[in-house]
Amino acid sequence: MGQSFCVPAFFYYLSFFLVAITVISASGAIDPTEGFIELPFNRTYYHIQKPYDVPEDQRYSFQNGVHKCWVYSTDKPHTPTSQTKPRTEIAIQGYNYSSGTWQFEAYGYVPRGTSGVNIMQVFGASPPQATTFMLRVYNGSLTYYSDQVLDQDIYDKWFQLNVVHDVDRAKVKVYIDRNLKLEAVGHGGSSHTFKCGVYAQNGDSQCMESRWKQIKILRKI
Predict the structure, then answer these.
(1) How distant is the alpha carbon of residue 170 from its chain centre?
(2) Is residue 113 within 8 Å of residue 73, measured between CB atoms?
(3) Is there a contact between 162 and 32 (Cβ–Cβ < 8 Å)?
(4) Nearest to 146 by CA among 199, 209, 201, 205
(5) pLDDT tens digits, 162-209
(6) Which of 5, 15, 155, 199 is such that its CA lies 20 to 30 A from the CA of 111?
(7) Do the bridges between strand 46-49 and strand 87-92 make them parallel or antiparallel, or are there none, so unpaired?
(8) What pTM was estimated for this model as a whole?
(9) How far apart are the first and last CA of the chain?
(10) How far apart, in Å, are the Cα atoms of 148 and each of 36, 37, 61, 143, 145?
């Protein structure tokens, strides 16, 4: 699957109970894009957020249709004034939304050893929260924030991800390989956008990497 910029590392994983979400077992694959229209998507519709003191090509590549994002736990944040942890993220631009139902679709890949990291988010929420949804990886498990496991074995394989955000009903649905895995309550906010890549969280590995292909942005008709 190409060279990984990260070496294996193992970190703890903590699981907590969250009443605001429902984790759903596999119940048959469906097409979550039915009733949606696909919007144009190319380099003009995203930019790369990466450590501010390194060139983009030292933390991001796009070859043969695959976006590769990697970052180190010792990296700087994405701006000199930011107090957040290191990240290399594909930040969608031009499709910020405040109403309606929107969807992110892509194929993701996380190499073994990447842990303590967010790989996809719905940015925007009511303070003090900053995000409506985060998809993280802890020791090979794909989780909703750090609370609920959606897939226990995500390393070294491509998976299809669909995240549906119904702003008006304050609902988020997450599909893995077209199986509904999560229904969660939204976190408010007046403007939202999608991001994917790697964004360090607590317990982050020394190097974090994710890969993405066939990224699509869709809106419900």
Answers:
(1) 19
(2) no
(3) yes
(4) 201
(5) 999 999 999 999 999 999 999 999 999 999 999 999 999 999 999 999
(6) 15
(7) antiparallel
(8) 0.89
(9) 36
(10) 28, 30, 31, 5, 7
